[in-house]
Each structure stands twice: as structure tokens, then as C-alpha cells.
Design brief:
- Two copies of one chain form a homodimer.
- Helices cover 39% and strands 13% of the residues of chain A.
- With 355 residues, chain A is an alpha/beta fold.
- Chain A folds into two domains: 1-77 and 114-250 and 339-355, TIM Barrel; 81-112 and 254-333, no CATH class.
- The first copy, chain A, contains 14 helices and eleven strands.
- Chain A has an eight-stranded parallel β-sheet with strand order 1-9-8-6-5-4-3-2.
- The interface between A and B is large, with 43 and 43 residues.
Chain lengths: 355, 355
């Protein structure tokens, strides 16, 4: 174990083989800086950033971290073609909620949603040459991936099945993140949308370790040093932790989201496509209960977001998280209201226990 | 860890805190005898045994093991009231398959299904006074449970959520099995049938360990010594392993089922209610693909079995597992064609690595 985790840390350029999962919407450069500053790998999620915002965040990372490594994360879905009939069906499905809040379905603007990795993003990235770049939903097209590799970036990508791990290794990933079903936020699946194919981490991790040559980073349900040690015992080269950071001072998690994470409600999460059109794990709230967590009416990712946005805004203005995406993994017990560096120190104790 | 696992072994009366998961339909006393003989806890599943068969199997265990402990397992569902309309709808849903095999839906006999724990079973059990008795789907009624406790039996039961673990502890379980979503065969859930509530083992196990006073036994996706070590790192007092035994010489797994477990098909399992009416994990085969793994038409557990039985028999006679329940957890990589005692020796190496 020791050699495997040491070699991943060497690959990432970090002191510890610990990655802070990129979490669009609940963190920016501030959390990444704190985590990287403490010897782990902080991550900047770019899916919801404009090119300008991205440049500004990357400058903040560079200025704060100097030569210390950080990770920049992108989604790489195919941008969808809007479908008026599907959009109308979606607004119809949400009509009772929209009516309740006095929202005119015809007046909802198209939302910005989430952007896939693009030539423009690659150009901005090239100005900063981050040590690590990670992708979700597969990998970008070969020419775009080549741009990132041109400055020697280490490429990470998420696999939710053995097949996806083999695909990512064959297509240029330098390390693969084993995303167990326990993980919060968007599932990274890209070869099949059949959710029954996605195993829990206890099953996925050892199978990926056995099948891949590249290092495997464990993700999903890891909340403390014991979880880190368990992942290392299963052969991981390192771990990625997400949910546990959500209460850290440097995260931008909303007060409503923080309250949900601290409550017993956090014991019940579900995969839902209601917020974006793709399956993502969050705490079950009123929208998930009443609409059912998975809806066939939801438009393609990320178009479902637009019609939810005004509902969310109106409910949040009333102090309610009923229509908010309360992203969380299945184990929120590691969330701590501490500076992120303290959480890094607590988590990395788990590396000492394995091997 | 060491003291926790030692104390579970002391509670069970075994050398190792390793439980062979009871697996109705694929094993009987022979596997249990081999496992208990090697210092772990073998289990006899009784859900599909008549009172007479149970007595005969228990006699075999007693004669072979003497004072060595073994576990006897029961389901404790409410026996369902047959519903003619629902049964008709179920046969209608299966009509294309029944036609293909020339089976007259009207001529299908009611199946024996699976029996819940009963006064009669408790009487047979009292003759043998097994050291350990385990239950699935909750616990039997208090008076029935009291009969089992009367001779000092250690009572185990499965929890799929934190809430179920707390309930089992409050109602008399001496240790709780944390059944992660990865596990093969029937899910043990009993407080809620909402499958989104059921976490993977990485999330479930540490939460149960944190919340319960009684020892927690980890189950689901554990296939080898590394899996055992990982579970112990997460705070388990011991582990229960199921799928890994299915290729052992002493298991009664059919050749079709064995072949599926050894193939790449075993990488894709799903929860299905088609075979019994309750969610159970098995390898995806033609029936699951074509009917969808979860059907609203399936009658209440275990009544769905009757209409599937002739399909399964006809297909198996043709050498096909298309309609067979190919139970498996999400990690079949630990299956080995060895005597069960050899698998015990391999798995218990994992205890040495933790703590």
C-alpha cells in the first residue's frame, strides 16, 4: 500500500494522496487553496464558471499556491440540443409547483446550466498550466485532451464501472477515480446510463484495482480516517473525499444546505435527475419526495436546471430548501465545521493505518 | 479492532469472527459444516426447508460438528394473503415468456415459496439448541424470539439502514449485520421498502458502528482478505461473506449458476423482485433485461415465485439460465473453486491486517 500511495502523491505532486472532490456550486478557489495548502490536492470545479470567472479563480489559485499543485475539474458531456416539446413536458410536470410559487412557466428563461470542457476553456487553462486536470462523464475529444497533456498535466477521470475504468485507461487517464455509488453529486457514468450497473465502493474499488495498471483513487462514502484506511486496505492508491468538506469554513455551502447536512435528513439521500437531467446524489427533500427522484420528463443534462431555478430561488427566499439540490453522499457523518486544513490533517491519519 | 473482533468471536463461539452468509437454494448443511469445521461460523438457511428437511439438516450439523457452533437462518416476513387479481396480472405480465415455453398460465400450481419463522420451526430448533440463530427481514414476534433466546441462542439480524440497526438492537438482536447494497440475494430491509434508503457498505457500516452498542458484522461486496481488512478498518466486529462461497465444492450452486459467476456477466447484477416479489440481487439475465428487474406486477413475497418456477424449469432443462435467479453480490471476484475450508483460511488473513 505504502508504495502505491507514495507513487500517487508523487504523480500529483502532493504530500498526501488525498484529493478534495470538485463540487460545483458549493465551493470555489478558497476551499481548493486551503486543501492544497495543507498538503492534499484541492480542486476547482469549472462546470458552472464562465471563461472570465475561471480565469479569475485560476489566478487566485496561482497567486495563493505558487508551485503547489491543484486540480481543475471539468464535465465533458455533449452539449445538448434543446428540444421544445421535451422542455414543455418538463414544465408541465413541474406545473403544480410552479403554480404554488406563482411562476409563469412561459416566462422561465433558458438557464446557463453547466458547460462541457471546450477549446475556450483549454485556452484559459493553458495560461495557468495546472499540474492536475480531472474530468467527469468520460474524457474530452482526443484533440482537446492533447492540449491539456501538452503541458504535462496529470489527467484524472471518474469510472463508475470496470468497463469505464478500462476505457479511461485506454484513452489517456493517468489515474482513475473509482466513484462508488455512495458518492454525492453527479454520477460520472458515461458508457451506460443504466444505474443498476453502478456498484458500491466495496465492490467497485477492488475490481478496478485488479483490472487497471494506472493508480485507482477511491471515492464515495469516505468520511474520516477510518474510511481512508479501509479504501487503502482495498488497494486504492489514494482517496477522493467530497461531502466531508461541505461544512468547512472555506466552502460556499448555503446555510440551508449546511443545516440539512447536520440534520437526520442527511441519512436519506437518493440519486435524482430533477435538478440537471443527470443522476446526482442529494438529500431527499420535498421535490424528490413529491416528484419522485428520477423523472423521465426531465430534459437532457443540463437543461433540466432552467425550470427548477426559479422554484429554487423562490423557496430559498422563504428560507426553504424544498427545491434546492442538497448534494451529499451517503455518509455525511464526516462533515465538520472546521478549517479545511484541519480536515486534511484528520483524514490523512488514515494513510498511516494501512499498509 | 482486535478486542472488538475477539469479542464477537467469543460471542459466536468461533475461532474467527467470520460468518458464512446463509444462502437458501445454493447450499445446505454440507457447506455450513465445512465452514464451521474450519473455525468460522457456517450457516444453514431454512427459508426453503420443510420441518422434516430442517430436522434432517440440523441432525447432520450436530453429528458433524458436535460442540462447534453453527448458525441457523430464517426469514421473518408476514406470510402473505394470496390475491387472485394480482396473481392474474402477474401471469399476464409473464405471458409472452410462458407462451414461448408452451406453459399454460392456468395450469401453474401455487408454489411453496419461502416460509417465515414459525412456532413449528422454533420447536424443531429447540431440539438442537443452535448457538446462533439469524433472521432476515426484521425479527420474529416477541414470543417466538423469546423461545429462541430461552436456550441462550445468540441472535443476529440484518440491517440495511441506521434506523433498522437501532430497531434490531432495541428488539433483542445480540449483533447486527450491516447489509451493504453490494450484497447478493435478498435485501433484508423491513422498516421501509424504499430502495433509495439503502446505502453501500462504505456508508452504512461506519454509521451503524457509531450508533449501535452491539457488535456490527459487515456484509456486502467483501470477497477476499483485503475486503475483510477494509471492513475491520471501518469498525466492524466481524464480517459475513456470501457470494465468494458459491463455487466451493460444498455449495449446491447449479452448473448454470456457476458458469454465470465465472463469466463477465457477473459484473452486472441488479436488484430484482421478479423471482420472489422482494428485491434481491442477482446477475442480470434475459428475464431481468426483458421484463425490467423491478416489476410492479410481481405479487407479494414470496408468491411471485410460483409463476416463474415452470419457466425456470423449462429453460434450465434446455441448458439456459435465462429465467433462473443467479444470485450474486456486486463483487464475484472472490469466488473460488476450492474446498470451503481453504476459503476460510484465505479470508481470515484479513483479520490479521487490521487493528
Amino acid at each position: 500500500m505504502l508504495s502505491s500511495s507514495s507513487s500517487l502523491a508523487a504523480l500529483l505532486g502532493t504530500e498526501f494522496p488525498l484529493v478534495q472532490a470538485p463540487m460545483a456550486g458549493v465551493q470555489g478557489s478558497r476551499l481548493a487553496i486551503a486543501v492544497s495548502g495543507a498538503g492534499a490536492l484541492g480542486s476547482l470545479p469549472c462546470a458552472m464558471l464562465s471563461t472570465e470567472a475561471m480565469r479569475s479563480e485560476l489566478a487566485a489559485l496561482r497567486d495563493a499556491l505558487g508551485e503547489r499543485p491543484y486540480n481543475v475539474n471539468f464535465f465533458c458531456h455533449q452539449a445538448p440540443v434543446p428540444d421544445a416539446a421535451r422542455e414543455a413536458a418538463w414544465r408541465e410536470a413541474l406545473a403544480p409547483f410552479l403554480r404554488e410559487f406563482g411562476i409563469d412557466p412561459a416566462a422561465i428563461p433558458a438557464g446557463p446550466g453547466r458547460n462541457p470542457f471546450s477549446t475556450e476553456a483549454a485556452e484559459v487553462l493553458a495560461e495557468f498550466r495546472p499540474r492536475v486536470v480531472s474530468f467527469h462523464f468520460g474524457l474530452p475529444a482526443p484533440d482537446l485532451l492533447a492540449r491539456v497533456k501538452a503541458w504535462g498535466a496529470v489527467v484524472l477521470a471518474s469510472a463508475t464501472t470496470v468497463e469505464e475504468g478500462l476505457w479511461l485507461q485506454a484513452h489517456g487517464a493517468d489515474a482513475v477515480i473509482a466513484q462508488g455509488l455512495e458518492a454525492g453529486g453527479h454520477r460520472g457514468h458515461f458508457l451506460s446510463h443504466d444505474l443498476t450497473r453502478q456498484p458500491g465502493l466495496f465492490a467497485l474499488l477492488p475490481q478496478l484495482v485488479a483490472q487497471l495498471r494506472v493508480p485507482v483513487i477511491a471515492a464515495g462514502g469516505i468520511a474520516d480516517a477510518q474510511g481512508v484506511a479501509a479504501a487503502m486496505a482495498l488497494g486504492a492508491a489514494g482517496v477522493q473525499v467530497g461531502t466531508a468538506w461541505l461544512l468547512c469554513d472555506e466552502a460556499t455551502t448555503t446555510p440551508l444546505h449546511r443545516a440539512a447536512l447536520k440534520s437526520e435528513a442527511a441519512r436519506h439521500t437518493a440519486l435524482t435527475n430533477l435538478f440537471t437531467g443527470r443522476a446526482a446524489r442529494g438529500i431527499v427533500n420535498r421535490l424528490l419526495r413529491e416528484a419522485g427522484p428520477m423523472s423521465a420528463a426531465a430534459p437532457e443534462f443540463p437543461l433540466a436546471t432552467a425550470a427548477i431555478a426559479p422554484l429554487r430561488a423562490k423557496a430559498e427566499a422563504q428560507g426553504s430548501g424544498d427545491f434546492s439540490p442538497l448534494w451529499s453522499g451517503q455518509n455525511a457523518t464526516g462533515c465538520r465545521e472546521v478549517p479545511a486544513a484541519e480536515l486534511v490533517r484528520a483524514l490523512v491519519r488514515g494513510f498511516g493505518r494501512a499498509g
